[in-house]
From TrEMBL, chains A, B, C, D:
It comes from the Bacteria. Residues 1-54 form the HTH tetR-type domain. Keywords: DNA-binding. It comes from Gordoniibacillus kamchatkensis. Coiled coil: none annotated. The lineage of its organism: Bacteria, Bacillati, Bacillota, Bacilli, Bacillales. PROSITE patterns: HTH_TETR_1 (PS01081), HTH_TETR_2 (PS50977). Gene3D superfamilies: Tetracycline Repressor, domain 2 (1.10.357.10). This is TetR family transcriptional regulator. Residues 17-36 bind DNA.
Length: 181, 181, 181, 181
DNA sequence: CATGAATGAGCGTTCATTCAT
DNA sequence: TATGAATGAACGCTCATTCAT
């Protein structure tokens, strides 16, 4: 699964061949089929597993009672932890969500993630602290900014430091929050 | 080329077959090879053409003398115009920049776009109006947010209106600008 | 189709590979797929075509008004003509009728052949000239005897002569007719 | 071996996989290889065993001194007993005799069966009681008729009764005997 | 002794590319 | 110039066989 994740993230589903995965994993091509019915099943299992981990990462110990800003920090921190823990998983999710070969369960799992984020955004909007834009758009802005930025880190173009991450968080928050000035 | 752009954007390079392109374009498969040496050449020509158009869109009539905010509006407006003009081209650029099959010329063309944006960001940072973050990161934030958001529009999940676009612009600007409060 | 017929007859469906068919037919493996969706479609088309030809061979110019013996001669003659015309087709039908990969249309086509033979046997039984055995059994006896015998001819173990064929016909007829002694 | 016989008879050698046999036999796939060097050895051992049993069935207590008709009854009875005893064995022999993967010993074993039948036919022809046709042809007629008929019984299309079997015997005998009328 | 995970050759099939028409 | 039939390398996948447990 590590090999598949790496390759799917780097080359995409169609650009990754089963022999490639087998070679990277240092197993025979047939072995993969003892564990996954097909390449399509593999990508779905992988996707669900990644998204589930991602959900866990952003929702575990979620400070329900805290203020929006602290909740945003929690979510952002979860995203960072997830992205750092497995640098390919985030990109894999990003590039494969919405793909034509995802099965209903994968779509549903992804929807759970979206639902979680929607709930956060909705609550922020209700409190008048997050801009009154469509939730999808707000999520897209933060998620888009964050993933593209981590792609740069993965590619080694910029170096990830606590300061940088904290500033990026500030930047993303400024993108969605209501400004009083 | 329209057919190829559409398919590459929707299914990716590896998920698009030459016969698919030929069918969509309502020409024979062989005809494509009269105009493009190979599928790889086609995707490169297409990429360069799209990126060049994109550069044109954001840089044409660029207000060199205006202030940063106005310049940002110009760039953002160019991006919107480009995305609206050919709804698939932006997504095609987004998903194919950095692909392994891009040739040096494609990479260089894309770099020209990056250079243009870098110059803008650099100037903004020098004036103390844009955050002192790595330029790549700042571009990624705006670009990432913008493209993800337009993906939603393309998918029909949110409806594009002048108000929405203006608010998104504000949001993106707030993500990169220095806040005085 | 000739190559496929030959190989299916000699090695069976599962024992015949598509590359084998392509090599025998002196075409590329991919070419086969321009004409047949799959190996399974190929075997079905082939089966239907053979059975249809077989039906034509035994039913064309059928002497509806003649006596049973003459009708038997006509059918037997049709079988001989068919078997001689394409020595593999009969064996192909014989070994593939009832196979798990035959589609409904193939089964129906084969049933048409059976129906034709049933009608003949039924009429003979009604006239008291053919034994009062299940029609299926009577057909099996003649068909079984005939095909096994032609397998020998195909294998070169016995030589086909008009006299031999006439004697085999007599033998088959004696197997199904009512004997007055 | 029962599992293998069943599957080879129903799906043919090439259509039967070793895991299929293992599953049907409720053993591990590897276990089969403790008893048979290869799938090919298995089919040969099975073939030889079946043919040997068949020979036993038709030749045990053979009435050497009796007349041809009684000998025919004996052989036919042996065939019936064999076919009833193991409903798949006869079909397995029928469909696998002459197969490309049979080894010399299998071919020789089958030849012993043929020799036994040849001897019977030869003796009958010498006595002027069996038609002066090639022995192979005569055997093919009886064997072909018999096996095709038993295939129907196996498939449940006709029901086997002593009367039916006796009539089939008569029919087969009429196919090979010399008729005085 | 029995197992079943692992293997990789070879299956059925696809598709980028060529070329006669 | 435009075509699409033909190609064969390489795909996703299966399965006869091996071998550590």
């Amino acid at each position: 699964m590590d090999a598949a994740l790496l390759l799917f993230a780097e080359r995409g589903y169609d650009g990754t061949t089963v022999p490639m995965i087998a070679d990277t994993a240092e197993v025979g091509a047939g072995t993969i089929y003892r564990y996954f019915e097909s390449k399509e099943v593999l990508v779905n299992v992988l996707f669900q597993e990644c998204v589930t981990r991602f959900i866990g990462s952003v929702s575990r110990n979620y400070p329900h009672a805290a203020n929006i800003r602290a909740q945003f920090t929690h979510i952002f921190g979860g995203m960072v932890r997830f992205a750092k823990d497995d640098i390919h998983a985030l990109h894999f999710i990003e590039t494969h969500s919405g793909a034509r070969y995802l099965d209903p369960k994968s779509r549903e799992t992804f929807q759970q993630l979206m639902d979680f984020l929607h709930a956060f955004v909705h609550s922020g909007k209700e409190q008048g602290l997050i801009r009154p834009l469509p939730s999808d758009a707000l999520i897209a802005i933060v998620f888009g900014a964050f993933t593209k930025m981590f792609t740069l880190i993965r590619a080694g173009k910029i170096t990830e430091t606590p300061e940088l991450l904290s500033q990026i968080e500030e930047s993303c928050w400024d993108a969605v929050r209501v400004h009083s000035d």
